[in-house]
Design brief:
2 domains; 8 helices; 7 strands; 5-stranded antiparallel beta sheet; alpha+beta; Beta-Lactamase
Length: 229
């Protein structure tokens, strides 16, 4: 996790930014990655999506809107934002693939940057599927675990899931603050220990400080998403 979540400190990413990321993540309902040439979805993640539309239909509509920009400037592009049945849909494109995030509110810029990084990685990783794709999802299904991991990191979705302490024995916990050590102990003892539960457990302490320490523990690899999720 530490290699993809952006480095933070109290000067570079202040408390209010961390809080904005944390609050925005709970507003995300669905993530859709689409093959640009065919307009077909190749990977999707429903977080809390209650819509009754087929993903292929949704992606077709979104790609049709996106194609307007391509016709205007003569090259593939992607829209930034639009409203779709009550959701804010934020889009990003990179060489053959598009990503769409459905949320209740607009995304903070840190998550939008994460979208751009994610779709760039996706396009490079699956470059063999950009052109003349036969429609098979086998490769994407085989790679589901790494896609899920990258998505959780780049879009900060790890904030939603149960966490566990790292199995890396080389990490030096002696440099951690007292608050970080307390959080680590909480994670070790509690099953299904999400960020929200950690914050609630330490509700008598400064919430911004707890959130900051959770981010730093994740960045430095001391905690990670539980293997059960």
């Amino acid at each position: 996790m530490s290699d993809t979540i952006r480095t933070i400190d109290k000067g570079y990413m202040p408390y209010n930014t961390l809080r904005a990321i944390y609050q925005t993540v709970f507003m995300i309902h669905k993530v859709l990655i689409v093959h640009h040439e065919t307009s077909l979805p190749v990977y999707e993640k429903d977080i809390e999506f209650s819509g009754q539309y087929d993903s292929a239909i949704i992606s077709g509509i979104l790609q049709a809107i996106s194609s307007i920009g391509q016709e205007m400037i003569g090259r593939p592009t992607g829209f930034k934002k639009l409203m779709f049945h009550g959701f804010v849909v934020t889009g990003a494109y990179f060489e053959g693939f598009s990503i769409y995030v459905f949320s209740e509110t607009e995304l903070v810029k840190e998550i939008e940057l994460g979208m751009q990084d994610l779709i760039k990685w996706f396009s490079i990783t699956f470059s063999s599927q950009k052109n003349n794709w036969d429609g098979s999802l086998d490769l994407f299904k085989i790679s589901k675990s790494i896609i899920k991991s990258k998505m959780s990191q780049n879009l900060y979705l790890w904030l939603l899931y149960p966490l566990q302490s790292s199995k890396n024995q080389n990490l030096d916990i002696s440099s951690l603050s007292g608050t970080s050590n307390d959080i680590l102990e909480c994670v070790k003892l509690g099953k299904k220990c999400t960020t929200a539960r950690i914050i609630d457990y330490f509700r008598n302490r400064n919430e911004d400080e707890i959130l900051f320490e959770i981010f730093n523990l994740a960045i430095n690899g001391f905690i990670e998403i539980s293997n059960d999720d």
